[in-house]
Amino acid sequence: MKKYLLLICILVPLLMLTLLIRYGNKRITVTEYTVQNSEIPESFDGYVIAQVSDLHNAVFGKGNSRLLSALSETSPDCIVVTGDVIDSRRTNTDAAAEFLAEAVKIAPVFYCTGNHESRIPDEFGELLYAMDEIGVTVLRNESLLLAENGDTIRLIGLEDPAFYDTEEETLRALRTLAASRQYTIVLSHRPEFFEDYCATEADLVLTGHAHGGQFRIPGLGGVYVPDQGFFPKYDEGMHTQNGTTMIVSRGLGNSLLPFRLGNPPEIVTVTLQR
Questions:
Q1: How far, rounded to the nearest angstrom, does the alpha carbon of residue 35 sit from its chain's CA centroid?
Q2: Cα 72 to chain center, whole Å?
Q3: DSSP annotation of 215
Q4: What is the mean pLDDT of residues 32-47?
Q5: What domains sit in the chain, N to C, each tagged with a CATH number?
Q6: What is the pLDDT of residue 25?
Q7: If you average pLDDT over residues 77-90, what whole number do you get?
Q8: Using CA atoms in the order 98, 206, 153, 97, what is the torsion angle rounded to 10 degrees?
Q9: Cα–chain-centroid distance for residue 156?
Q10: Burial of 121 (0-12, 13-18, 19+ CB in 10 A)
């Protein structure tokens, strides 16, 4: 009898922890930010950007229906995807393309690369072809102007440094693209380059990569982030310095570690306010 009681005392907490982890990894949260800047043109006052980062081929409902529904409910003016939409360890370009094909029906979609795309050039080539067919705007060290009622803001998408031998290629491209002085939004996978973003006087930078530290401890934050180490500075949230605001998404999916703890998947929305 004592053996059975001991077994129950072990198994019940384990079962509860498993269910809690599963629920925490499938529950999509929406984190809303408002960014104020006098340089935001009048026509962009109230403009809503929805950010999807680090999907890593995760699926939320059949055909990502729950993720698409959550995106739609934010009523975005555009959707930005800041890298790692596919995962190099369990790549499914068809699933990623299916999600993006539905996302463009909600709002225009703009995409920049992540480090996982660099690891699988053949599959990434297939995804690029699919995105072109779908109508996703891919920005690989490129910029464009978003226009609203005659007003414009600049949108820059950076190629992830993993596509190069050194990070300097990406940062050189940023310095060139951010040279024009108008309200500028940068899409980049990497938050650890915050000082470099500030140096170019970019107004708003949307990043991911950190996965929120994967495991989060209340009061301490994320435990570990690649390229930043343990208890990193830029694991999530809004950071402001010298007129530059960077927002770090905790992302949606997982990669090497198969689950999160205290760190539910996240969609970010940013409302521009003049």
A1: 17
A2: 17
A3: B
A4: 97
A5: 2-273 (3.60.21.10)
A6: 64
A7: 96
A8: -10
A9: 15
A10: exposed
